[in-house]
Amino acid sequence: MKCRHCQAQLGHTFLDLGTAPPSNAYLKPDQLHAAEVWLPLRLLVCDQCWLVQTEDFTGRESLFDEDYAYFSSYSSTWLRHAEQYVIAMQERFGLHGGHCVVEVAANDGYLLQYVKRAGIPCFGIEPTASTAAAARERGLDIISEFFGQTLAQSLADQGRQADLIAANNVLAHVPDINDFVSGFATLLQPSGVATFEFPHLLRMVQGLQFDTAYHEHYSYLSLTAVQHIFAANGLTVFDVEELPTHGGSLRVFAQRTDTCAHIVQKSVADLLAMEDQAGMRNLSFYAGFQEKAEKIKYDVLSYLIDCKRKGLRVAAYGAAAKGNTLLNFAGIRSDLLGYVVDANPNKQLKFLPGSRIPIRDQLALMRDLPDIILILPWNLCDEIIRDLNEVCVWEPKFVVAIPEIHVFDRN
């Protein structure tokens, strides 16, 4: 396989999780009698541009289909993050009713609803039918296509260039990252700004967040790699911020290289220096991650087996893609984990891919009174524990498995 950005031959494995079904391919009851497609899940690192990437086994259309079940609006933490982003961009760039804001991967309209509320013209680009329909119900203009150079040029020809383009948690999800990024340079106004948010590979390694690896994540990104990719496709990074979201993310600000209307901030050089100091341009940085992932696998499996032997009832909270990675890598099935609860009705009454653990609504907890609740989306554990503390009057133990087994003190 060659690097999806620079075309260098790839020969260095970063992480090998064996095989797994796509993490968002939730099963309906009538699909339980059919075979699932399991694909190798292996991450490689390019020693030229330092992009970490999955091997290619399936196309984006099969991963982001009409039944795509991830809806952003079911997290109050993420909604607050989106609202604060819109306020911050208004203040920094003076956005008003004469500007145009575009969101690529608009999902269910979780962010653009705040842009619309502020009276700023906007539209979204979202290829998954389920989430696009939810966004339209909010009165938002949504284009249901995959973004790239062709769509960007078509919109620019229609006079629909953007003053601000938001791209949250989508840069990692595109197989043709060069075509995707070049589209931003085409769609931006000469003085326009594009912001990209994505989990930071540095924090993934430091936090042992191997469960954020799944087929839908084609790329695992550092600023070092992103700067290479942007420079080759008409964009210049002029600012960067570290964010706490998703276990540690970056928000990168980019502009058209042919205009460079914004001053490059010191933050860019500082963060690149931090990555260099951590060793991210050296293969030794990526060594040893596999062994650490395997330790977590054995630890969580041992913990659940111990709970089983003690007669403790265990449920999980959050039918998240990262949870599916963990469960399938560890070989956990419904004999050790009875069910998972999720607030998203689009996931309820379905089954997790691979493990086939049933997904129930929150009332299941009140009926069954489990002794242990394993929180799979550990990045939202504060929000989840806060919400569950209001309903779990029988005082179960809350547990996360990443970066290690940790039992929370309810006090």
Explained architecture:
The chain has 411 residues and is α/β, with parallel strands linked by helices. Among the domains are: 146-286, Vaccinia Virus protein VP39 (Rossmann fold), CATH 3.40.50; 290-408, 3-Layer(aba) Sandwich (Rossmann fold), CATH 3.40.50. It is built from 13 helices and 17 strands. The protein has helices spanning 60-63, 76-93, 112-117, 129-137, 149-157, 177-187, 201-206, 223-231, 266-278, 289-309, 321-330, 363-368, 381-389; strands at 12-20, 39-45, 52-54, 101-104, 122-125, 142-143, 162-168, 188-199, 219-220, 235-243, 249-256, 314-317, 340-341, 359-360, 372-375, 397-400, 406-408. The strands form 3 sheets. The protein has a 7-stranded mixed β-sheet. Strands 14-13-12-15-16-17 form a 6-stranded mixed β-sheet. It starts with 11 loop residues before the first strand and ends with a strand. The model has no long low-confidence stretch (mean pLDDT 94).
Give a topology summary.
Elements: E1 12-20, E2 39-45, E3 52-54, H1 60-63, H2 76-93, E4 101-104, H3 112-117, E5 122-125, H4 129-137, E6 142-143, H5 149-157, E7 162-168, H6 177-187, E8 188-199, H7 201-206, E9 219-220, H8 223-231, E10 235-243, E11 249-256, H9 266-278, H10 289-309, E12 314-317, H11 321-330, E13 340-341, E14 359-360, H12 363-368, E15 372-375, H13 381-389, E16 397-400, E17 406-408
Parallel strand pairs: 4-5, 4-7, 5-6, 7-8, 12-13, 12-15, 13-14, 15-16
Antiparallel strand pairs: 1-2, 2-3, 3-9, 8-11, 10-11, 16-17
Helix pairs in contact: 5-6
